[in-house]
């Protein structure tokens, strides 16, 4: 199957190109040019911006389902609900819970990925968020199940997840943390610091042991202080990748802008940290073994801690642009190239250029999702400005 998309603006690695054509063949981008092809269908996307599809490194659930449900049906529900938010690929994220529940969720992700064909957003692998956290900044992770890591334990986890385990988060100050960072690095699994009371020095030590990312910057960690830069300070100082929940609730827009000034777009990955209430109305929802109240879109435990979000990636982009004042091209990189590069997937995801997967998102001028395409297949549309045209062989 071969067709071309003719958009008003295309976000390429070089910048925003006006009136450009992206030709797609067999699920891949064949080329990007100013020349309209005559030997295939051309789809005109008016008042639209064509960009790489979004990648969510950290998400728990959506549309009533959660990774911790541990069923194929739950993963399918989430994957099917993500394209309407512009997401083409995601990392299924667990929470602190009884270990058997976590192992079951990890195994379920592996089995889902091993199925012959996925529908909806591509599940890339798993992210173990918990149980290796400290109580001081546990957020919504239940105290009873917080434990220290051991190699035996990690081996058990890897037995269940196999090569689909992409990421593990650990509080660096807990017993066995440095050994765990080393072991995970040897097994080519990316490590992050999270839900931690670690000092600047301790996070620096974790960084030296391979931890290269800070999970939801500012949340679940010791804050910035001029005499003790803490975990936030260490993440920014060492240019570790900073995950950012840009829902306007977890982080003030001024801090979103400050993070961008300090880390640059290259240093920030927008994540949603979305839980099962994403895309649904307020009410009571389950997160792991806990009940969470969602009021005005904010998910909190009964104690009042934020418990994931109901954010979507398109909203995160709008917030970065409209509230934090980040230029559109750079905000989009934080949801596309940056996470693709972090997961070593930038050879096929995260940018619009020849040879990449045709996993693309179309937004209107107000940054609302119009279309989502995954590996060349149209999986979502809301686009009233889309039509097929016959063109002569002309330059735009
Ligand atoms: Zn968290």
UniProtKB/TrEMBL annotation:
Gene3D superfamilies for the chain: Metal-dependent hydrolases (3.20.20.140), Urease, subunit C, domain 1 (2.30.40.10)
Coiled-coil parts of chain: none
Domain of life, per lineage: Bacteria
Active site: 273 (proton donor/acceptor)
Keyword terms: Carbohydrate metabolism, Hydrolase, Metal-binding
Pfam families, sorted: Amidohydro_1
A GO biological process held by the record: N-acetylglucosamine catabolic process
InterPro entries: Amidohydro-rel, GlcNAc_6-P_deAcase, Metal-dep_hydrolase_composite, Metal_Hydrolase
Cofactor, how bound (note): Binds 1 divalent metal cation per subunit.
Gene Ontology MF term list: metal ion binding; N-acetylglucosamine-6-phosphate deacetylase activity
Amidohydrolase-related domain mapped to chain residues: 49-379
Amino-acid positions noted as binding Zn(2+) in the UniProt annotation, renumbered to this chain: 129, 195, 216
Membrane-spanning parts: none
Necessary cofactors: a divalent metal cation
Enzyme Commission designation: 3.5.1.25
Family per record: Belongs to the metallo-dependent hydrolases superfamily. NagA family.
Protein name: N-acetylglucosamine-6-phosphate deacetylase
UniProt source species: Limnobaculum eriocheiris
